[in-house]
Amino acid sequence: MDLLKQEAEHGALDVPHLSNYVLNLMTLLCAPVRDEAVQKLESITDPVQLLRGIFYVLGLMKMDMVNYTIQSLRPYLQEHSVQYERAKFQELLDKQPDLLDFTTQWLTKAARDLTTPSPSSSPNWEANKSELPSPTMVLYQGYLNLLLWDPDDEEFPETLLMDRIRLQEMESQLQQLTILSSVMLVARSFSGNALFRSPEFVAKLKCIIKALMEECSSGPEDAMLNVSEQVSQEIHQGLRDMGLSALSCESTASLIGQLQNISKKDNCVRIIIDKRIRLFLKCCLVCGMQESLLDFPGGLIFIEGELAELGWKFVSLMHHNQQVFSPYYAEILKNIIPSA
C-alpha cells in the first residue's frame, strides 16, 4: 500500500495494470451472480468511471459475503435463539408458577373446538376415545384461533405475548384479503370471465381496492361504499375498452348492492372466503408451505401471492414458537388429552 501511495503521489501509478489486477482478483472471489458485472467493468476505459464501478461491485460482493455468512450461521443462530428464549421463560416460570394459566385455557379451548360442537361444554374424552385429536393438531388449532382473538381479551397465552402484535397484524391482513377476494369474485360474477382474464385489469382493480380500503379508517361499511362505486366504474370502463356489452342499470345496482353487503361479517361470500383462507393456513401448518401451494384453494386465485406471503409469515412464526415452547405444550396437553 505504501508503494502504491508513493507511485500515486509521483504520478507513476499504472492505473490500467492495477485495475486489471483488481478485476482478476474480483473474478476469482465474486459469486457467480456477479460475473457479468465484473466482465462489464473490463470494457470501461475511463479510469474514474472504472474505479467507481469497481467500488460499486465490491460493495455488492461485500453484501454477498454478509448474506452467505448469515445463511451459514442461521441454523446455529436459530438453535441458540430457541434455547435462549426457553431458558428466559423458564426463569420467569420459576418466579411465577401460574405463568401458564392462560396458555392452558387457550389449549383447552383448542381441544374443545376439535371435539365438541358446543363451545360451553367440556371435552368428554372417555366417550370419544376414538376421536381424540393429536397434541399437534390441538396446538395448530390453537395457533389458528389466535387469528380470531378479541383485541380486548387480555387472557392471551403467555407463551405468545411477544408475538401478539405481529399476530394482530396478520389477523388484519387476513381480514383485508378476505374482503379483497370477496370483492373480486363478486365483480367477476357480474362482468364475466373475459374481463378478468386480463392480468392488467385484475392488477389495476386490486390496487384500487387495496388503496380505497387503506385510505378509509372509519370502518368497512364506509370503505365498501367507495369500493363498490369505483369497482362498478372500472368494470364499465373495462367492458367498454374490450368492446363488450355494458352492464344494465339493474345489474349495476345489484353489483353495487352485493359489494356493499360484503362489509357485513355474515355475508355468505365473505364467510366462505374466510373459511377457505383459514383452511389454507391450517394446511400450511400441517402439510407445509410447498405442498399447500401446489393445492391452492379454489376461489382464492386473485389473492394467491398475498395469501402465500401471509402463510409463510404465519407458519414461520408459529413453528418457531412451537420449537421454543414444545416442552411446556406437551406437559399441558398431557393433562388435557389423556393419551397425549
UniProtKB/TrEMBL annotation:
InterPro entries: Tcp11. Belongs to the TCP11 family. This is T-complex 11 family, X-linked 2. GO terms for biological process: protein kinase A signaling; regulation of sperm capacitation. PANTHER family: T-COMPLEX PROTEIN 11 X-LINKED PROTEIN 1-RELATED, TESTIS-SPECIFIC PROTEIN PBS13 T-COMPLEX 11. GO terms for cellular component: acrosomal vesicle; sperm flagellum. It comes from Rousettus aegyptiacus (Egyptian fruit bat). The lineage of its organism: Eukaryota, Metazoa, Chordata, Craniata, Vertebrata. Pfam families: Tcp11.
